[in-house]
Amino acid sequence: MMITSLLFDALIAPFIEFSFMRRALIGAFALSIGAGPVGVFLMLRRMSLLGDAMAHAILPGAAIGYLFAGLSLGFMTAGGLAAGMIIAIAAGLVSRFTVLKEDAALASFYLISLAAGVVIVSLKGSNVDLLHVLFGSILALDDATLILLATASSISLIALSVMFRALVLESVDPTFARLMNAGGSFSNILFLSLVVINLVAGFHALGTLLSVGLMMLPAFAARFWTEKLTGLMITSVGFGFLSSIIGIISSYHLNTPTGPTIILASGGLYLASLLFGQRSGLILKIMRRPHLAR
Amino acid sequence: MMTRAAPITLSDLTLGYDRHPAVHHVNGHFATGSLTALVGPNGAGKSTLIKALAGALDPIGGICAIDPSLRRAYLPQLAEIDRSFPINVHDFVAMGLWSKIGALRALPPLGPHRIRDALNTVGLIGFEDHLVGTLSGGQFQRALFARLMLQDASIILIDEPFSAIDSATVDDLMQLILRWHREGRTIITVLHDLTLVRTYFPNALLLARDVIAWGTTETVLTDDNLKTARQKIEAPDPHAPLCEQVA
């Protein structure tokens, strides 16, 4: 009895008591559903750093929106989307038409974007606003923001299911996709848009710097548990959910900033998977060495 | 000779990268249902030529005319296939039906049967659920041939399918090529193994940037021709990049 009531107080009561806790949880769930599968594809296509670069690229766009209209959901979202798409296309063009490879092109863009974004925000606002943009405000999600997050993850899931076959083909065998006219560049751009949409939704809750965390870390963690594509996507969403719950509860009890705590929880799950995962987890690797064992 | 319109006709075809020709002034045609081995030393332009036939490389001069009503299938030598991607053998092979199903349509009624038949033909029954990353080199080549089979193309272009493949696999896949030949498909294969060419291929094209010889295999693969081809590649013409007919 004692233990169950303790658990209830620790895990359930905060959500019953405070609506901002419930909103934070729903918002983080919505982000996990949208971002997880996209993160899996980024990982499988060895484009993990691209998510990071895009997340930074969104900042100046959101900052310009902020410059015009303050902390306005609509303006900052539109600015972020526009900036993300411009950087995605620009990086593609630079790597295609100049000597720089895509990673160098992206790295240069995101350094410039991050610096520009911070400067633009501080032109008008206070450090509080800057922190809001950089690290989000998941404990202050209003109805409009929640609807935005849910819409973004719905769009992401629907678009991903429509383009799924083309994206798999393009990922496995780009030469064949080109020969089949399978819409390679179209599905590439559509996929990058999904990355941008998820990151822009994520930055309202987690900020531009950390929104990519809920996209990539659950995907990395999932890689240690399953090898099937469907399994990877479902597991990544599961890890996203778990990170959200652990992160929000811990931040409540430990009085830590919620966004970073969620990402830390996600990181913790990743490290645990790295050690204990049933597929090439380190512990299992050390224990099962049938050909070397004596 | 040309009683029926040839599916592939080349006139003065010149190919290259960055305006440096790799294959010069090729004239001729591949007849319907012909089985041709494309041979020549390394650097002779075999892959370049077959790439152009596949439509993956635009000529820098001349014409590569291919009957547009015929479906082409091309298996490149160094396909940029990501074998670590988690896709199983069944789904990988099923991609051969892309021209029928595209990105959104369901498999046609006979689809599952055709996929199974293709897997059976290449001896990969039982591997349907295995990820392609777990296949050996030979098994993966079998999967690629199964996919090629599902593409059901009239023109089949294969670039060096048998490098680093064990002899049992070569035998099986060679039988599949011969079956396609009996079905009346036009097949062009880049090969290095001249014994294989002499045994199975009625026609050969010997390339060393220019066409050295093109015709029936025994008239093409003569010692003289092979020597000429070798010398041409070993001692490149210093004026080669300045081909007047193109410039």
Indicate the multimeric state: heterodimer
Please mark out the parts of chain B with pLDDT under 50 across 5 or more consecutive residues, or reply none. none
Distance between the termini of chain B: 33 Å
- Radius of gyration of chain A, in Å, reads 20 Å
Mean pLDDT of chain B: 87
Order of helices and strands of chain B: EEEHEEHHHHEHEHEEHH
Strand-residue fraction of chain A?
under 5%
Number of strands of chain B: 9
General form of chain B: globular
Strand content of chain B: 15-25%
Q: In one word, what is the shape of chain A?
A: globular
Residues in helix, % of chain A: over 70%
- Output the number of helix runs of chain A: 13
Q: What profile does the largest beta sheet of chain B have?
A: 6 strands, mixed
Question: Structural class per helix/strand content of chain A?
Answer: mainly alpha
- From the alpha carbons, calculate the radius of gyration of chain B and give it in angstroms: 19 Å
For the largest interface, the chains and their residue counts are: A-B, 24 and 23 residues
What is the chain-wise order of helices and strands of chain A? Answer: HHHHHHHHHHHHH
Describe the structure.
The complex is a heterodimer of chains A (about 290) and B (about 250). Chain A has about 290 residues and is mostly helical. Chain A is about 80% helix and about 0% strand. In chain A, helix 2 (about 20-45) runs parallel beside helix 7 (about 145-170). The longest helix of chain A has 30 residues, at about 145-170. The model of chain A has no long low-confidence stretch (mean pLDDT about 85). With about 250 residues, chain B is α/β, with parallel strands linked by helices. Chain B has helices spanning about 45-55, 90-95, 100, 110-120, 135-150, 165-180, 195-200, 215-220, 225-235; strands spanning about 10-15, 20-30, 35-40, 60-65, 70-75, 155-160, 185-190, 205-210, 210-215. In chain B, strands 5-6-7-3-8-9 form a six-stranded mixed β-sheet, sandwiched between helices. The radius of gyration of chain B is 19 Å and the shape is globular. The relative contact order of chain B is 0.19. At the A-B interface, helix 7 and helix 8 of A face loops of B.
